[in-house]
Amino acid sequence: MTKPLRFPLIAATLAATALLAACGGGDDDPSVEGDSSGDVVAKYIGTWESDCYADSGASAKIRADFTKTSATSFSGNVVAYGYVGSSCSGPSVKDENVLTNLSMNHAGTKAIAGVTADKFNGAADQGNGKLVMYTDGTTLQLGDEDGAKDAEGYANSFYDSRYTLKRRN
Prior knowledge:
This is Lipocalin-like domain-containing protein. The chain has one helix spanning about 5-15, and strands at about 45-50, 55, 60-70, 75-85, 95-110, 115-125, 125-135, 140, 165. The chain is mostly beta strands.
């Protein structure tokens, strides 16, 4: 069975459960270097992080580290960090691997919300799926996997700004 990739949905669930576990960890690992080549995936390579968002007295943010594996593919991991309080300050009390051993392969482009987004076929330890991504170089938008999809199974819209990631490096 194929499961769609869901970066933000799992992270939002983490925010609600962040107070329940205290296993340490932190989001201060070194950033992944960007890629200045002209390859189709180069603009996605590096470290990305969401803004802090609050949920039920806790807070969370998402970090994604992507490394190029070829001109048309990349690999990486996505981790959600949970914090006590609503400001994502202090050490994280929970970190959860949202997507591990992620492998993304470029599958073309499509127009969404007035921009040309990239389509990817992906696989991770947590499942396989199709994802739409767009970056202007500083922010990364993800296709809304819970919304309407086109005939090929790719999202027709982006998640709201709460789940927009920003380039960390």
